Amino acid sequence: MVSARDIELNEAGWWSYWADVRWVEKTSYVMLSSDFGEYFFNRAGLIDCRVGRDAIARVEAEFKPAGRSPCFSVRKECKGLAAALNSRGYIAFDEMSVMQLSQPKFKTANDLKVTRTWEIDTTAWAATYALSFYGDLSPLGPVARIATRLARELPVTLLAGQKEKEMLGVLAAFRTPGLLGVYCIGTLEKSRGIGVAGSLIHEASRIASAENRVLVLQTILSDGAEGFYARGGFRRLYSKHLMRQEISDSNRPERVVLA
Questions:
Q1: Which residues pair with 113 in a beta bridge?
Q2: Which one of 13, 105, 154, 170 has the fewest beta carbons within 10 angstroms of its own beta carbon?
Q3: Could you tell me if residue 139 is inside a domain?
Q4: Per-residue b/e over 164-188, b at no fewer than 16 CB within 10 Å?
Q5: What is the pTM of this model?
Q6: SS3 for 205?
């Protein structure tokens, strides 16, 4: 049986490939990116509910040198921690659902070839990611650099769905003890609805089963993808508040769609 702590550590480990993850103490880390301005790449993770006000202040202090606004992800059961952040002017602006796959029931795409890391051109993987999540190639440089590194990392398996030599979708899987976390599930806009993401998740499920790992993912509720995952065989384990100090619309950070 996996714990919330195990899942949170999987998440922190994965995003450490994308941003600078600094542990403020054993139960708190700050993720900061010089490549990506979205809050999702610039936030604090609190692994344990027992984080005091002094620790919150130390976490906040990490954001200032990077010119980023503090943002915290807090498990819903950590009511005292959420109250402490409320007292410092933080509000919950979104939620993240943490889900576990039981039996995959997703639609799969006909004639789609799912390939793994050793068969994948990482630049093409990065371009498909950029087009799927941003709609253009503006982040291609840093994503391609990250994908090249990921292809060399033993805990990581990159997946791609290809049809007639065109890459239509991507997924990344990251291993920590007992877990396979799936991230960066993206499909080109023109290819959505035909089962590309489902095919990739089925392949990730086969990897998890072969390695006796639990397959988990995280999705932001405002993106509207939780229902898709639930219909495909995922169930919610717990959810997290995303909290930041109230800001004006003109200063509101951009948000990336994760699934």
A1: 162
A2: 154
A3: yes
A4: eeebbbbbbbbbbeebbbbbbbbbb
A5: 0.92
A6: helix
Residues 211 and 141 in one domain: yes
89 backbone dihedrals φ, ψ, rounded to 5°: 95, 10
Question: Do 105 and 43 sit in the same domain of this protein?
Answer: no
Domain count, the chain: 2
Q: How many CA atoms lie within 13 A of 172 on its CB side?
A: 28
Residue 22: which CATH number?
3.40.630.30
Residue 192: other Cβ atoms inside 10 A: 14
> Cβ atoms within 10 A of the Cβ of 159, count?
25
Residue 256 within any structural domain of the chain = no
Residue numbers of the domain that contains 180: 101-237
Q: Which two tokens stand for residue 51?
A: 């984080």
Query: Residue 43: beta bridge partners?
Result: 31
Whether the CB-CB separation of 215 and 205 falls below 8 Å is answered with yes
Question: Can you give the length of the chain in residues?
Answer: 259
Q: Which residues of the chain have pLDDT under 50?
A: 249-259
**pLDDT at residue 247, as a whole number:** 63
Strands (E), the chain: 20-25, 28-32, 43-46, 71-75, 90-101, 113-116, 156-163, 166-176, 179-187, 214-220, 234-245
Residue of 174, 39, 196 lying closest to 110 (CA atoms): 196
β-pair type (71-75, 166-176): unpaired
Q: Is residue 47 domain-shared with residue 140, that is, in the same domain? A: no
Q: Do 136 and 110 sit in the same domain of this protein?
A: yes
